[in-house]
Amino acid sequence: LGPGDYTTTLHKILNFGDFNSNGLLTYGEARSLWSLLQHREFLLLLLFQDNDTFPRINGTCGSIYAMEHVANNKLFNMKSNSWLSIFLSDAYHWQFPIWKRRAKMSIGMIEFMMDIFEKNGVNYYMCNILPTSFGYTARYDIKIIDVLSVVSKYHLKTEMSNRSCYTDDDCTFSHNCKTQCNQELRKCSSDLVVPNLKILCDLLMDYLMYGAPNHVTVDLERLLHQCQSLDNRQFSAEMDHAVLLNDLQLFIWSQIKYG
Prior knowledge:
The protein has helices spanning 7-17, 27-37, 40-47, 99-117, 153-161, 196-209, 214-228, 237-256; strands at residues 57-61, 64-67, 124-126, 134-136, 142-144, 150-152, 181-182, 187-188. The chain is mainly α. It holds the Pfam family PIP49_C. Residues 33-228 form the FAM69 protein-kinase domain.
């Protein structure tokens, strides 16, 4: 996670490891907890247990853990099973839930971006923002499926700053986490070129604009286009990111809060 004061985080982890809730950590409990923490997915789930977009940890046994089942394990499937997909490239749109349910889930994804932007003094990135990275419950609450694609800024910086490069393509950490190649030093930078929010808005442009109510389309498309133009190389990038997150959340919420 990088340098910092993690007293609160450590207390949270140790309290979780006190499986019989007697205020003490036995050798067996400590051993089990340590083996669980070797799984990066488990650590992320534990760090974000108070965030509704992350699946719950249902239980543990030694180094094994079970987490909440998510009824729908992808946001949507672009490879539609319908025979019409042979003739229509956008046939997958027909499997979308009604617009208000999509709007609710979109707010969940935006709130997720807010949550990982800064958590207990640590900044995180989502390095795979794809329809298969998100799922949802029977009540249309969004859940993160690809937990391992959540990476701390420090982790990314450590990984990329030691990487040699000749082109920007050499500075690819994952599908959505890419930095630039410093041609003089032949080293990758540690800052993302494309903000996470821009990539999410690319996804929402397809997911939310399809079938959107007529009175919503103009303002929603304007906000999403602003979001798609975000660039981390701009001086005001961090402020723009925060403002657009807030504006998108408030606008979408205003369309469904009475529905």
